[in-house]
Structures are given as C-alpha cells and as structure tokens.
Amino acid sequence: MMSVKSGVVFLIIFLTLCANSALGQACTTLGQTPSTAFPVCGTTKFEQNNVPICSSNDLFVPGCPDGAAYANKNPFWYKFTCYVSGTLGFVITPNDLGDDYDWQLYDVTGLNPDDVFTNRNIIVTGNWAGNPGTTGASATGANFIQCASGYNGTEPRFAKMPNLIAGHEYILLVSHFTDSQSGYSLSFGGGTAVITDPAEPHLQKASPSCDGSKIVVKLNKKMRCSSLTATGSEFSISPALTTVVSAVATNCSSSFDFDEVTLTLAAPLPSSDYQLIINKGSDANSLLDNCDRGIPDAEQTAFSYIIPQPIPIDSVGKAGCAPDAIKLYFSKKIDCNTIAANGSNFSITGSTPVNVIGASGNCTDGLSDIITIKFDKPIYTKGVYTVIPKLSVNGGAVMDECGQIIQPLPVSFNTADTVSAVFTYANDLGCRQDTLTFSHNGAHDITNWNWIFNSTDTFTTQSHTIIYPASSTNTVQLTVTNGVCTDSTTSTVVLDNEVKVDYKMPDVICP
Fold it and tell me: Among 56, 84, 167, 378, whose CB has the most other CB atoms within 10 angstroms?
C-alpha cells in the first residue's frame, strides 16, 4: 500500500485538511489520549486489533522541515516506567504489512501526560517514514527522526534504540496515517533497559465499611481492570459468615488498571476476626498485573470488624483567653452533613450567660474528627462551662461516619479571667534624685510580671523600686499573665522636681 506522504508542501496541506476533517472526531476511547495511556510491560506482547478513527491535536516532530506539525491521527498511547537504565528496543508489526504506522517517544517524568502536545523538550525519538511495514527502535536504526516522506522503499523504518533513565516515566505514541487499518502488535525486546516492574503483586490491606456490608481491598501495585470479575469471584471470607457478591475497582471507568477494589457482601459482617482470601475467579485467574502476573492463590490478609456503637465526645479543646469558640474532638470521623451550621446540635451552660450560634467541622471528603462550636460573645471571666450535645431543632443529630448518633454526654471546659497590666507608682521626692516604687495589684490570678525600665532594666517581681534623676523622662513597660490571658501597658514618667543652690554677685568686687 503506497503512502500519500510524498512531499513537505503536500504534507503540510494534507495535515491541515486532515486536522480540519477530524473536527467532531475527538479521541475519547481509553488509550487514545496521553492521560489514559495503556500501561505496558516489557515481557508481554500487546495486541491492538481495533483503532478507532479520530484526531485531537497536532504534534511537533523535531528536525523535520519548518518544524511542521504532524497530526495526532488515529493514535494509541502506551505508558511505562524504566526500572533499570539502558537502551529500549521494540517492534510495531502491522497485521497488514501494507499498513503504515508512525510513532514518537516522550519522557514525561513529573509532568502532566498532556504536556506532549506543548512541551517540545520532552521528545526522545520517533519515526514518521512513509513506507509501510514493521517499525520501531533497533540497534541498527537511524540516528535521527525520519520525517514524513514519499514511499520509495529506502526510508529507514527503525530509529536507533534510545537510552532510558531509571526512575523516569515514558509515553509512546503509535499513530496510523490513514483511516483504513487492520491493527498491529507491540512488543519490546533487544534493548538493555528494564521496563518490567520487579514488584510481584500481593494483597496489601482489607478494611470493612462501617456497616459491615462492604470490604475495601488495597493492593500493593496496579492490576489490570480486565482481570477482575464483576461478581468478585476471586474473593472469599473466612470464617464464611457471608459471601462476596460483587466487586468494583476504583478508576476502571477512566483507566486500564487499579490498586483498590470494593467488595459488596451478601449480608453484613458480625463482629469477629476475619481473613480475606484470594484465588482464581470464574475467569480462571486471580488478579493480574500489567505483566500478566497474578496474586498467588490462597493469599490472605487479616481484618477485624466490630459492630459500631454510639461514640461520646472524646475531649474538648483548651479554651484560650476570652474564647468565642471551643473545639470538640471525636475518636471517630463525624459526617459533616449532620453538623447543623446554626449550632442547634449543642447547648452550653456556665458561670455567665452564653449561647451557641454556630458549629462547623474541619471537613475532608465530607468527614471531620473536630467540631468547632461558636458562641454569641467572648467569655471574659473565670468559670466552668458545659457543652451538651442534643438533637437539632429539625430532628437531626450529629452522626459519625457509620451513621451512629453521638452520645448525649456533656463535656466541660474552664475559662480564665482577662487581665490588665495597668500599674501604679509612688514617688519619694529628693533634691537631686527621686525614689519611685512601681506596683501591680495582681488581680485575676496573675502569676507573672515582667517590668522593663527605659528598655534596658528588666525585673519579674510584682513591685519594684528604682531611683531616677529628679529631672528626667523615663519609660516603664509592664507585661502580666495568668497563664492564659496576657496584657501589656507602657507609661512615660516625667520628673522635674530637681532643687539646685545658686547665687549671684557683682562682676567687680573692691578689695
């Protein structure tokens, strides 16, 4: 089959027309966009027997005339990680050797996969030759990217094997130029780089839901969505007090692999210790990773389930100075949807009148282990106050993530008096010097005083005596605290009572 790519000018015109004709044929099939790329493994042969017709973006191909934009036409994208540095060899074999397939490799380490459309610096290598047949990367391939060309049978179909870097992530584009195709296979080999994940697949953790009707299973690595049966036939529970009836993997609607699956049970679990067991399912395999390696048969992971009970408030936060709110802490997550914003789930009593006017959680994914209760005014005085959970006015109540209403047990907290750092002083006047005694009354449980005189002299007693010149200006600062509330004040003391002896006499005195 002869390619239509017969010249740079014709190529640019054709690609423009192709891009225009592709409007309304956006690439939406899984694997046809960089963000949904197929995960591939270096030990398996990937068969692609159907390539939906589409085109979504233009691509830059370095070294080609005028940096011409090439159409991302009828693509499939493949992603892999390099685990051991080395060269990468692979072969794309059309099912019909008269078909022309092109490809380009990108290093997308730490990037958004869609950056392949805008970042020209991440292109590793590629081949856009116009002649049909096998293509890929080999030891004898061309040491450059072959641009689009007319078919004369001499254009290099293979590029030299690129060097991959351990820890880097790569995306390979395979594009078919025409809208008629029979599919292809993709296989890796011949290079020294390792792109096969060395980690063997295993169960990692099983966690029952609050009501015991589901189990969330976490795996140690990504597994193929196609290897999981909808009935969850790979899983069983011991003791067999219930059975698995369905399995739903996370993200399989937008991806080819998953590392978390939710199992639905025929009946809720009774309180007990359990083992979750995996074996071959009705599809004759357990769960398979992207290299077709399965989790070993009969592998188990332990979990426990206790039928949830209503929880009390675990503790109450320490009240600060003049608090206008208090935090309530819980040992389990609270459903934020059950927290009444007007605070009607709670009431408060105490040494002075105060009302609850609001409540809110520190919510993440609709759950919080803290509820902040808001008061109608700050509490300025020392006292004991009690928060009492109650049903809200609309009949609801604060519930935990398991649907259990919190126990209506009150919790108490203490408040402290606010303090004042206002001080007094007495002045024992002198002719040349004054003796001043500064003091504070210590009211409202003050336990600490910090005096600073003229920004240099510091003292920590409740009162202090100091001598200043009778004609001077002095700055006095006092900070006081009762361990909760703190206050500071600064005062300027002006002294002008100095007494001097002086006299006058004539300038000339007779002998």
Answer: 56
| Closest listed residue to residue 65, CA positions, set 9, 128, 109 | 9
Residue 279's φ and ψ, nearest 5 degrees, are -145, -175
When computed from its CA atoms, the radius of gyration of the chain, rounded to whole angstroms, is: 39
Other Cβ atoms less than 10 A from the Cβ of 149: the count is: 19
> DSSP letter string over 271-321?
SEEEEEEE---TTS-S-B-TTSPBPPTTEEEEEEE-------EEEEPPP-S
Cα–Cα distances in Å, from 405 out to 61, 208, 391? 62, 20, 9
Q: Which residues, including other chains, have CB under 8 Å from residue 328's CB and lie 6 or more apart?
A: 313, 315, 316, 317, 370, 371, 372, 373, 387, 411
* Rounded Cα–Cα distance for residues 193 and 20 (Å): 40
Summarize pLDDT for 231-272 with one digit per residue, the tens.
999 999 999 999 999 999 998 988 999 999 999 999 999 999
pLDDT by residue (tens digit) across 441-490? 999 999 999 999 999 999 999 999 999 999 999 999 999 999 999 999 99
Q: Could you give the 3-state DSSP secondary structure of residue 335?
A: strand
Closest CA to 288 of 251, 249, 254: 249
The residues that bridge with 243 in the sheet, in sequence order, are: none
- How many other C-beta atoms lie within 10 A of the C-beta of residue 105? 23
Give the integer Cα–Cα distance in Å for 218 and 260. 5
The Cα 432–Cα 471 span in angstroms is 8
| Rounded-to-integer distance, Cα 31 and Cα 50, Å | 12
Q: How far apart are CA 245 and CA 230, in angstroms?
A: 9
Task: For residue 11, give the 3-state DSSP assignment.
Answer: helix
pTM over 0.70: no
Judge whether 134 and 156 are in contact, CB under 8 Å: no
Q: Which residues contact 340 (CB under 8 A, 6 or more apart)?
A: 359, 392, 393, 394, 396, 398
